[in-house]
């Protein structure tokens, strides 16, 4: 194996796991680092490769033969599905006895002819055999073709040229991959072709070097010790089949550069397999074919009139491996038996006594009837029936306990007749088995391979059970009801269906406890084409769960009468039982309506896609779990009907419409997403986690009842939706999505409100407002206030306590007043704005409200709004310094509330710009940072005081600054700074320790004229106290009363 890949990749390849499914095409191969290597155009089915054991082999040339190398161990028993879980002691297990081996080299070892054929005691149903490659266009021209192989020899990883690391010994498990032959050689046969002499046929040798992965050979695999006999295959475009090329014989070297050699003699091997065949002569109109029993030498005859055909079977009292009555035959006795082929025109074959054909199979190419002539004690045991495409064989025979009838092929086998047949039936491959007996048609029926269909043509056809083995198959109920308490199945290949036109049947499952079904239910899609209904009716409800993990697509209804039906995916099972927590098989459930009765529950679980509509009776429950998805409608018929979402982590999706009188309950820390037009009226309870209404594209809605929110209620709509329910509880409301959410009922939830996107409309409040708690508006989000006092006006705990605008916008949507009382308005690149075309919305700001501006990459803004200050204390603006040119720009008007004398107090090290037509009269205090007066009325009408650490900039900052005319009295205290361009008409006082920064320019033609063009005194007094500083560029002058008059 290449060190570019995980060993698990090679193991999955050999078992058709993961991406290497038997139907997969164009499989992109990536190395461990995620780099693309190449593409495998078509994947083969490796089921025909025998399980890992001492020596290696594969099912080749016929359903009862395996191929390997002559020098390999003699595998007396082989199995094919232990690696898939069909282990000894389970009903799925089967093993096959080799009754002979035919070494191509004969009695003397000659590695040119190092290949072998072994015959099995019965045909294999779990896997389909692969033909030998005999097409000379391919066989004689294999160089450069992409070949696949699998083997269980020493497992090692190439780490360099000639270097490898052993990771496991031989015969523990299969690995596989691709190869490209670099050369081949051929030794022609000598003499007339004779199946008993392989040397009369050509012998082939193929070889290749193990190289690093490439586009031509994307998953390179080489043979090591223990890989002798491991098969290789090529896809033959001429036949449309994968065909066996040869078996690994030897290897040389190690690591990259390892050479592997393969051998085959396919023309001989196929001729040897065919040499066991005997075609029975049957003529049209010649009457019944009499099947005579064998004599003491095992010889028997078929007789039809004057036609007679000899065959070899087991003598009376000796049995093969498909019966338990009599003495077990020796290998020699079994191998002597003939494979019988019924061709001709068809007809009736009548047993003349009990017959056992040992290792001989019986093949039908035409329609035949097998009859006992009225004597039900006559039994027929064979290695198996092969009913080929187009043929219909009806058996009227009766088997006894311990008998096994095996059937493969694409044709149809009908089990008819009367009385109880006690034989087990084992079917595989494709084709159909029809159970149509007046009495039991079989004891147990085992279905293997994934392609077989078992049709029920009557009621009560089994005295035992259906056993779905490797890859399973389908049971077509064909117009007949069925009730089971258990489904014995190995994997997801099990399937029940109904395909009888104009029929509707019910499959009832009564299993108690917790049971799992990995398989499927299917039907014709309508009553016209056959419909299947399913009912779950366990004996009691408590603890009874039927877990479904397959593909459920019947168009009929489901009824959950008690207990719970849970649909949930399962982890993808990789080779060796490895499970990747990120790799799951999704369960699909798309059926007719699911009826959930009182006390019962239907659940869409993790990794499940459920599309069925669900009708929940009063007292019933529909559940959805983490990772689940449901797209059908849900009707909660009664007040006690419950939709329960138990989403512990991750998310679950409900995209159908929920209606009815019932309620919805959300638990767990995960998220439930609702995208349907919901109208249920029983209310909503969010115990924990998130209930999301909408997914950003589909709006969704809540029902009409009250909402108890102790988690998070999120709206994620692209359109306009309304919250018409009253939301209470300790939880929060979050607005996502580009759409609009309108809230016009008083809400009492206390966990706060966050707007991340789109617009939240709050429509009219009052004393306690329409929402309470904290409001956060993040970048991309907006809140629009319409009506009066959406945040409340009492300032108590029932109102909005804090507003945080993190890049978002708070809009006043009309000209009416909004009260901001006893709260903090925190802004970080946020905006307070008005959407009113004429006039401005008004903020009534009480003095216990604080504007907290946090550092951001852009300025926060208050614009197009009248900020009305009320109360006797200054309104605080705490501004932190960010990275923008300024931090808070107030272009809206700051005015007095009626009868109040508002004031502004600026603190923090940030820059605040006032540019509105401000008329507040209580004064301005600059306690820290910079306040820019960028309009003539920027500072209102009161005195402006610049405290230590504060700076007043007149006229603006930067290149766009313009001079302003101000009439305010200005007091600059110790440590304060006054600067800028303005015409002042009030009194200005620079106290000791203050700084007066001037902008100076040198003018005049001689360059000796010094002019101050920053400040113009129109009236009033400009006083500089002793100790004030005049700052000219880098020069600071200390002024005193002796230097300059104080006026």
Write the layout of secondary structure elements.
Blueprint (H helix, E strand, L loop, with lengths): L6 H9 L9 E6 L5 E7 L15 E2 L5 E4 L8 E2 L17 E8 L12 E5 L15 H4 L6 E6 L3 E6 L2 E6 L6 E6 L2 E5 L15 E7 L21 E6 L4 E12 L6 E6 L1 H9 L2 E4 L8 E3 L7 E6 L2 E6 L5 E2 L7 E2 L2 H5 L3 E4 L4 E5 L3 E2 L5 E3 L3 E4 L8 E2 L3 E3 L4 E4 L8 E5 L3 E4 L8 E4 L4 E4 L9 E3 L5 E4 L9 E3 L4 E4 L5 E3 L3 E2 L4 E5 L5 E6 L4 E4 L2 E4 L7 E6 L8 E4 L2 E2 L5 E3 L3 E4 L2 E4 L5 E7 L1 E3 L4 E3 L4 E4 L3 E3 L3 E3 L4 E5 L2 E3 L3 E3 L5 E5 L4 E4 L3 E3 L2 E5 L3 E4 L9 E3 L3 E4 L13 E3 L2 E5 L3 E4 L3 E2 L3 E5 L3 E4 L9 E3 L2 E6 L9 E6 L2 E6 ...
Parallel strand pairs: 17-23, 18-24, 21-22, 23-26, 24-27, 25-28, 26-29, 27-30, 29-31, 30-32, 31-33, 32-34, 33-35, 34-36, 35-37, 36-38, 37-40, 38-41, 39-42, 41-44, 42-45, 43-46, 45-48, 46-49, 47-52, 48-53, 49-54, 52-55, 53-56, 54-57, 55-58, 56-59, 57-60, 58-61, 59-62, 60-63, 61-64, 63-65, 64-66, 65-67, ...
Antiparallel strand pairs: 1-2, 3-4, 4-7, 5-6, 6-7, 8-11, 8-14, 9-10, 12-13, 13-16, 14-15, 15-16, 18-19, 19-20, 50-51, 101-102, 105-106
Structure keywords:
21-stranded parallel β-sheet, 15-stranded mixed β-sheet, Thrombin, subunit H, elongated, 1047 residues
